Structure formats: structure tokens, C-alpha cells
Amino acid sequence: MRLFVLAALVSTIALAQETPTEREAAREVLKKMGDLERSLDVPGWVTRLSAANPARDQVTTRAKQLMDTELLAMSDDITKHPEVGFVEKRSVQLLVDYLKRHSFEVTVGVASLPMAFVARYKGNNGAPNLGVIVEYDALRGTQRAFHGDQHSAQGPVGLAAAIAMAEYLERAHAPGSLVVFGTPGEEMMPPVAKTDMFKAGIFNGMDVMVRSHAVSSTSRPAPGFGTCCLNIDGVKYTFSGAPSHQMTPWNGRNALEAVIHLFNNIDSVRSSMRPEARVQGVITEGGAAPNVVPDRTAADFYIRYPDAVYLAQVREFVDNAARAAALSTGTKVKIDNYGNLRDGISVATLGEVGFAHMKHFGATHIADAPGKPQGYEETGSVSSVIPGLGFAAYTSSAPNHTYEMEEDALTEVGHQGFVVDAEAMAALLFDFATHADYRAAVKREFEGIQALFGEYQEALKKVYTAPRVPDPQ
Ligand SMILES: [Zn+2]
User: Fold this and answer.
1) Fewer beta carbons below 10 Å: N end or C end of the chain?
2) Among 127-136, 419-428, 461-470, the least confident range
3) How many angstroms is it from 187 CA to the middle of ligand 1?
4) Which residues are found with C-beta within 5 Å of the ion, ligand 1?
5) What is the distance in A from the centroid of ligand 1 to the CA of 377?
6) Which domains does the chain have, with CATH numbers?
């Protein structure tokens, strides 16, 4: 069993490398990562931390009790009152009131984000600092806002685990502190909430971070660096022209033509981009009336590539497509790179132990092999700097971002998974807080992977050369 787990771990490390070029560049790095993983004896940690522990049982029982008596109801309530990013007023109020009732000191509005909050348990002291991230934004839909990603349950799950663990530390006079971070607007940018919070120092001093998220099979990431959905640059291109009558358009400059050219120019260089690039946008402003030459238009793009190094080249193609569009139409363009999502780091010492806990607490629809490496949050700004784990117990048969997944949040399917997430999260926080040697192993793995990530970026820079284009003779 041990050997099997280790073999599965080491063989899935490569999953984050999605292109042949990346795999080639990563070869040495992955060899070293394999050595690092073997040296950590992750299966040994799983065995040791899966052993019976009556003190931990008290903590997980408390988390389950909070879910069963109050927090599943709160999850239903938030699901039925979806609020999109950065205006999650009602949801935040529910979570904050509950934290205050359970001895947390709460600051609402941090890092210039009115819907972000930090809640510290009053009765705790010192390190290790245990952080719980909760999100609460709904998806923007054409019919209505909806919780098709079940962020509605994240708050209640995180609160159950945080309260149960904080109470334990106080009761046992054990060192350690619980902090809950309310992070708004995960599904939209700008602003990139977690990055802004990170830059403002909100997460400073945390030793470990956890979060839960809806999935259609119980899973954990392989160790390494990566992201769920490629590295992303969010960029808005705004064109300004000059208005005039439709009958005398030569008196104006047409910004709609410019934005149409932008899309056509991008298509003209797609064959010069590596095929894994994902460049799609929408026109968010296209003019106001057919009889007035549009003097202002805008397009919003998510530009994606598996790694950030080649992404910079893709980005240059798209920026130049916009500049060319403006030049050829006599308009002007403003380029606003309003947000970037990057690789995070996942560690097996947390992932495998958390996965064992989820199975122990009755998670269903188990994915046996680890998934691709990815951070516990999507921006990478926190998950590439502080170790942590995203809990992903099965909570729906439907894919993410669907109305069906929202429906499941209100039924036994969702409820059962949310309780598993809360119990497993509480258990892992307990393990981390009460075993100094385990904390050291997590730190060693995290820092080892972090160093290798730097090495990997350097290797990629060497392979992504651009051709020399001579001046025409
Ligand atoms: Zn989500």
C-alpha cells in the first residue's frame, strides 16, 4: 500500500507540465522533486496521523455538531441568497455575526476591500498560526446570480473547523491561533482580492492555510506547482475615437472598427502562438447608436497559457494586435492589465493526510490517483508563499459552474460532503497544531518545491526563444 501510494505520487508530479516543451524543461526539476518526496516518507505520515486520537475526535465531533445544528442551515441560506463578487453584504454579515458570537474579534473591510474580513479567535495565543480562507461570492449568470460553484458552503465549512479547533486550543492551553480570512469576489477581477490582501500583509505570519471547494469527486492534488485553469492575464483594451454623423463618418474615427480589428488581428497570429494558448474575449462596449460613429469601445480578455513564462509572449502578441488596430483606424488604445492568476504550490504532506481524513469521515466518489498540482486558492499569490490544502470532498455530480451544482448544495449530496470537509479540515488543523515534527516536514516539502519552481522558471526562459526577424532589404 505504502509503495503504491508513493509510486502514484511520484508518477503524477509531472502532471503540471502540460506541453512537451514544459516537460523537457522540467525534467531535472522533477527528478529532484521525486527525491524530495521520497525523503519525506509521506505514507508514513498518513499512517501515523490516521491512528486513533481521542482529543482530535472531540474537535471533529464539535465541527460536525456545528454543521448539523446551525451551519448547514446557514449554507442553505447563503445558497438561496446568492450575491456576486464584491457585494456579498448579506453573506458576510451572516458569517461575521456567527464568528462574533463564537469569540472571534472581527475586522470587516481590509486591504481596501469592503467585503473582505479578518477574524481572530480571542482565546488563542502564539504560533502555529492556522488560517482558514472562506469565499462567498456567487457566479454572474444571464438569468440571475447563482451558487453554481457552491462557494455558499465554504464559509460555514471553514467556520465549523475554525471554531472547533480554536476552542480546543483554548481548552487545552495549547499554543496556536486560529484566524479566518473572508475573501470576496473569487469569480471575478479586478480587483484580485486575495492578491490585494496578500500585498497588504493580511496573511503575514500564517503557517498553514486551508480552504474547501466543491468538486464532483473526492480528490487531492499531487505535490508540485500548478493551477487548476492555466496562468491568466486579465486585460481590458479600451479604444477611443471621435464621434460624427453616420452620413459624414470621415469627420470621426471609428472605435468599433478598432475593436473588431483587435479580434481579427489576434486571429491572424494564432498560428504563430503555441497551440496551448487560450485567448478569448468579449466586447463590453461597442458603441451606442448606428447613426453616430462610435467614439469609445472596449474588449475584455482572459489570456491563458500553462506557464507564466510563455504567457508573457502570448500577451505581447495580443497587446500588439490592439496597438495595430488603433494605428490602422486612427484611434487610440489603453491597455489595462487588471489582474494575473499564477501557479500555486501543493504539498503531499498536507494533501495525502487531508485525503485520508476525508475518506475516514465518509467521503464518497473517491478519485484514487492524485489530481494535478495546484494551490489551495486560484490567484497563486498566497498559495505559492504559504503552505496549505484545499479540501475537496464530493459534493455534487454536476460539473462546476452549473445550476445543477447549486441545486446539490441544498440536498443530502452537498450536505454530506460539506460535513466531511469540515471534519477533515478540523482534523488536519489539529494534526498540524499538535505535531511539531509534522509541521517541520510540511515546511521542508513546501520550501523544497518553492526552490524548484524558481529553477523551473529559469529553465523555461531558456527554451522559449523568439525567432530573429530581419529588417526587409
Ligand atoms: Zn470556485
Assistant:
1) C
2) 461-470
3) 7
4) 149
5) 9
6) 2-226+343-458 (3.40.630.10), 231-341 (3.30.70.360)
